[in-house]
Write a structure and sequence with these properties.
Blueprint (H helix, E strand, L loop, with lengths): L3 E6 L3 H14 L3 E7 L2 H11 L3 E5 L7 H7 L6 E6 L4 H8 L3 E4 L4 H13 L6 H12 L6 E6 L2 E6 L3 E7 L2 E6 L5 E3 L3 H7 L5 E5 L2 E4 L3 E5 L5 E4 L4 E3 L2 H11 L6 E2 L1
Parallel strand pairs: 1-2, 1-3, 3-4, 4-5, 13-16
Antiparallel strand pairs: 6-7, 8-9, 8-12, 9-10, 11-12, 13-14, 14-15
Helix pairs in contact: 2-3, 4-6
């Protein structure tokens, strides 16, 4: 198998050289064909060397890594974002099912990320990159979540998700319309991903969208009624924290 052609785009020379050295010493079957210090140089070298994988810094003095995506369509290579900042941009990346590494780069995480790209057939979906750019500009009403399943990736409006139910190593996602979707991630992964997005895990098997709660029934066997009239139990262990969160909302009824 031919070595994976790699380009590194990062404004810090030390970061470029460090990542290049890590790839050379610790990652099999890769070849760094070029390194760039800004977006303009990155675009030029990507066009010239046609890499299969680009390590792209997010925040740079003369334009963000996202601007490279805006200016280079279609994106016919895979991207691993590299950043020192764990903030809102990373959530947009995660929502789009794209890969990232935090600086300083961990060797094992680097190996895993590159191996994942080498095992995948073809490039990441162009829709994933488009979804990333849309999520960066979107308000909460329009944010979309990429759901990997056995057929590929489905993009769902986060506000249209009613609940997520555990199904072993998979998660069944129930929407306002359409059939449930079986996603190839655990419920715990979606709980972490949707943190801060009006979702709460009321039970070990259920993650619910608080905006879709119609009614809360109090008592020892307390449960909620959702917008699709599904009843979901609230575990005793979660009850106190759940009620605290519900106090921030005023669209539901307690009975």
């Amino acid at each position: 198998m031919d070595a994976t052609r790699v380009i590194i785009v990062d404004d810090e020379e030390g970061a470029r050289e460090s990542l290049s050295n890590l790839l050379e010493k610790y990652v099999d079957n890769v070849k760094v064909v070029a390194k760039s210090e800004n977006i303009a140089s990155g675009l030029e070298k990507i066009t010239k060397y046609t890499p299969e994988l680009v390590f792209l810094d997010i925040e740079m003095p003369f334009g963000s890594g996202f601007e490279l995506l805006e200016r280079m369509k279609p994106v016919n290579f895979n991207i691993i974002f590299v950043t020192a900042y764990d903030h809102y941009a990373l959530k947009a990346i995660k929502f789009s099912a794209l890969d990232y590494l935090l600086k300083p780069v961990d060797i094992d995480e680097l190996r895993t990320a590159v191996k994942k790209h080498q095992l995948e057939s073809g490039n990441k979906s162009e829709a994933s990159y488009n979804n990333l750019l849309e999520n960066l500009k979107a308000d909460d009403q329009e944010k979309k979540l990429a759901i990997p399943d056995s057929h590929g990736i489905t993009f769902l409006k986060i506000n249209d998700i009613i609940r997520c139910e555990s199904d072993g190593n998979y998660t069944r996602i129930f929407m306002k319309e359409g059939k449930p979707i079986l996603a190839s991630k655990t419920l715990g992964e979606y709980e972490h991903l949707l943190e801060g997005e009006s979702f709460f895990r009321v039970h070990r098997s259920h993650l619910v969208n608080l905006m879709h709660i119609k009614k809360y029934l109090k008592g020892d066997g307390s449960y909620i009624v959702l917008s699709d009239d599904t009843k979901v139990d609230v575990s005793r262990r979660k009850k106190s924290a759940f009620l605290e969160v519900l106090n921030q909302f005023n669209h539901w009824d307690a009975v």
